[in-house]
Amino acid sequence: MAVLVACRRSIIGLLRYSPYQFSDISPYNIAVVTPNYFDNGFIRRGLGGSITYLIDGSASHPASSLAIYQLIGAIFFAFPMALLLRQLMVRGDRLWGWFALVMLVSPQLFWGWSREPGRSDMIVCGFIAWSVLAALRGRFVIAALVLFVGSQVHETAVIYGTPMLVALWFVAWRQGKAKVSDGVVAVLLLAALLAAAALAQLRWGDDVAQVTATMRGARLVADHARLFDVAAYLTWGGFVAISTSWCMEFSDAPVPWVIAAGFVVLLVYFRVLFSRTWLAKGVLAFAALVPMVFMSAIAFDHGRWLIFAVANAWLAAVALRLVGTETVLPTAREWRISGALLVFLVLMGPGSSHYPSFLAEKLAPRLFPNNHPKWLADCAPDWAARLGPPETLPAH
Question: What share of the chain has pLDDT > 70, as a percent?
Fold first, then answer.
């Protein structure tokens, strides 16, 4: 059911149109997952592009490849979530049904991802979920290895996954089920692998100009040339692109309010997920709030960082029930409050890349009618030059 919630647009498009309509998926999303290991060597974020390459057999993939890619991501994340719920059900924890309901109707989980076909986010969350399953079995090294593989899709696998891994190790250590060395070895292994991968990518991966050329080859219509170049710069431009992102982000008047709204929504989820003890609140804060704060400071997809955080909060809340940190069932009053809050979240509508909810997305232009944020040319006048020689577009 969760897969249908996340991929309903893609599934309907695949069944209804032949070929799949390009307009159903953002050309920016197509651009980002185009670079791959086959054409560009061992590049950063190359795993997702390699998966889409294998789906279609080339980097110049149609939008249907991205629809299938999204379906794979939804299954890859929903399956470990279902395994966690099954473990709760087997243990007789009646909250499994509530967590399943939150999973299905949350505007910041699969419903939110339905608005962004072609993103790698569900695959990334899938890696985090599989690492949680490994950590719950005390296999912290395996959990670290899973996170490393996920980082080759997107760095958020490590940014959100490492705090989760550390939090679950801490809970296990506190219960006498893990040693200090278990956590230290796992974190050091992950750090060593990331460092080795970064060095290998410098040696065997294409530079930004070659990556840009591959991305341009996937463009289906000439009108999207500039957008594909923007995606290349912001994704593979390195630290310079991060500074450009800061310039663009904080020149946008609604951004501070959008970030604050995301924090409020995440805190609401802490209540919805029944994090009652101070230990549970601390684990959810460390695993969900801390990485969201970090990502909100360096990149402007604030809605995405909230969705990642909500996914982590869900995983952490279920994991805490499984390890026995949270065992007491909610009171009738707590049920009423959490139910009302969930209804409130649903009524605000699904999140998106830049906004925590559909309501916030519609209110922002009304609250800031004279907003004039800076764009790439304002923050980095030479941004196009970093992508290599300009492209000569063919006639269409």
Answer: 89
